[in-house]
Amino acid sequence: MPRASRPADPERRLRQVHAELDACRACPKMIGPVVHGPPVFSKVFLVGQAPGPREGGFGKPFAWTAGKTMFRWFEETMGLVEEDFRARIYMAAVARCFPGKANGGGDRKPDAEEIARCRPFLQREVEVLQPELVLAVGTLAITEVLGEQVAGKKLDAIVGTKMKTQWHGVDVDVVPLPHPSGASPWPRIEPGKTLLAKALGLVQRHPAMRAVLHP
């Protein structure tokens, strides 16, 4: 009796999640297409807020200016270039469609119902991948992953730390990162600049990331 191929099973399950994501039209205010990364089987799981207006055209997350900034952080800190990052780290988001523009300018944040509709997809991805390290990028993603641990706290008290939580039934280490949007100066001025460097150091030294950096 032939042995089942273990690596193929998680990939098949991830592809099924992605197929269902691609077909989702549950949120009337959201602007498609759905955006997600490839079915990378990784113990490092990045979760952002939502795609911006350009990502849908490129068909991948963090494909515009915020992405260039974020990937530069990882390249300058640990030599991980964008192509390798995308190939070795699983990339997801709290919401997978562009939420549109807010009344006051900038991108609209997904509302509670939109976040709730997308959450089951995140749950299934976490259950399949069983990540060891979660990179939560931006306040919304940080709150989604860490919940009560960060309630009422500002980025100054969160970024630069490593926290433990159980996320969708999986025990994970979480390193919060600021959003790399050019609209926010926080990562470029103090104390944000120093705290970001500290956070990236925590990421670089984590065993799951060391496995990514030295496959």
Q: How many helices does DSSP assign?
A: 9
Beta-strand content estimate: 5-15%
* Helical fraction: 40-55%
N/C terminus separation: 32 Å
Helix vs. strand class: alpha/beta
- Number of DSSP strand runs: 5
| Shape assignment | globular
Reading side by side through the largest sheet, how are the strands ordered? 2-1-3-5-4
- Please tell me the overall pLDDT: 94
- In angstroms, what is the radius of gyration? 17 Å
- Biggest sheet, in brief? 5 strands, mixed
Oligomer: single chain
Can you give a write-up of this model?
With 215 residues, this protein is of the alpha/beta class. Helix content is 43%, strand content 13%. The chain has 9 helices and 5 strands; from the N terminus they run H-E-H-H-H-E-H-E-H-H-E-E-H-H. Strands 2-1-3-5-4 form a 5-stranded mixed β-sheet. The chain starts with 7 loop residues before the first helix and ends with a helix. The N terminus is likely disordered.
In short:
It is built from nine helices and five strands, in the order αβαααβαβααββαα.
Topology:
Layout: H1 8-23, E1 44-48, H2 55-58, H3 65-78, H4 82-88, E2 90-93, H5 112-129, E3 133-137, H6 139-146, H7 155-158, E4 163-167, E5 170-177, H8 192-205, H9 207-213
Parallel strand pairs: 1-2, 1-3, 3-5
Antiparallel strand pairs: 4-5
Helix pairs in contact: 1-5, 3-8
Core attributes:
215 residues, 5-stranded mixed sheet, alpha/beta, disordered N terminus, single chain
